[in-house]
Design goal:
Blueprint (H helix, E strand, L loop, with lengths): L9 E3 L15 E3 L10 H4 L24
The structure holds zinc ion.
């Protein structure tokens, strides 16, 4: 199935591309569904859930997908 259902998903990294530096194969990961710019006061304080310019895919835009 080409979709990850829900927004509280987790798993293990199966493979990474050559440009990926922040995770490695076998790492346990979660998906933080809220997309922010990291520039507003809330983001800079580490409180990005209150970002002034947040984007929640599938709620503020058409559904997001993650390929397997
Ligand atoms: Zn922000």
């Amino acid at each position: 199935m080409p979709y990850t259902i829900g927004h509280e998903n987790a798993g293990w990294v199966h493979a990474v591309g050559s440009a990926v530096t922040n995770v490695s194969e076998g790492d346990k990961v979660i998906v933080h569904p809220l997309v922010t710019r990291g520039l507003c006061r809330a983001c800079r304080a580490g409180d990005d859930v209150h970002c002034e310019n947040n984007l929640f895919p599938a709620m503020t835009r058409p559904a997001a997908t993650a390929s397997t």
